[in-house]
Amino acid sequence: MSRHGRWAELLPPTVVILAAIVLWELVVIVFRVPEFVLPGPMAVWAALQKWRAAIWFNAEQTLYTTLVGFALAVVGGMGLGLAVGYSTLVYRALYPLLIGFNSVPKAAIVPVLVIWFGIGTIPAILTAFLISFFPIVVNVSTGLATLEPELQDVLRSLGASKREIFLKVGIPRSLPYFFASLKVSVTLAFVGAVISETVAANRGIGYMMLAASSRFEVPLVFAGLVVVALMGVALFAAFAVIERRLTGWAYRGQSITG
After folding, report:
1. pLDDT tens per residue, range 137-169
2. Across residues 63-67, what is the average pLDDT?
3. Whole-prediction pTM
4. How far apart are CA 78 and CA 73, in angstroms?
5. Of the candidates 138, 229, 223, 243, which has an alpha carbon nearest to the alpha carbon of residue 187?
6. Using CA atoms, how far apart are residues 192 and 122, in angstroms rounded to an integer?
7. Are the beta carbons of 85 and 145 closer than 8 angstroms?
8. For a designed S-S bond to 209, which of 30, 118, 190, 224 qualifies (C-beta 3.0 to 4.6 A apart)?
């Protein structure tokens, strides 16, 4: 992408974010909102500076549990998605179960995980896994299911077997769906990890936010939210770059403005 293209892509979100921050600060000042109700960006920045050691310590834990849970979701979701997309029997057998399981609020599962594994890292990892697993399965299986019947007929007429079509055409065609699911799932993994940390952890951003809210240190709570948001955006952007490099053929001819 050219330098002009990069600026055209980065400028709109940058302007919107800066405008939102300025508006937030103005609202707090004009309406004299108490800091324990809604701290302004300057107060949040001050909390980030004051508690940077504690924030960094807990952010490392949250990032670790998120990445481990997300990695498990990628491996399991990709494998199950391929199985569901390849076999109609597997699809009919497992899809209703997957839909039902995904309908269960993951916050309701955390107490069960605590009973099984105790308070600590494992419940956070498993919650991140559970909440980010389903989108990967759905997108991978959808990518395989959208392979045109006409294309399959042509490939069969040329002597290709079902397995060859699956490996050489189906999987490559499902990669854009797969990477799209990764960008969504990695943000959901952060949600799962933080939810678990607020319930069953002694370390992590969620635990820090809960402890800060109990002391009415609301700027520190918002600082934790900002850190989680920044980590989520960073991972989303990283997967977006990887997606463009590995599946650029799927976007060939598309302009940045759509």
Report:
1. 988 888 887 777 777 777 777 777 778 777 778
2. 95
3. 0.85
4. 8
5. 229
6. 12
7. yes
8. 224
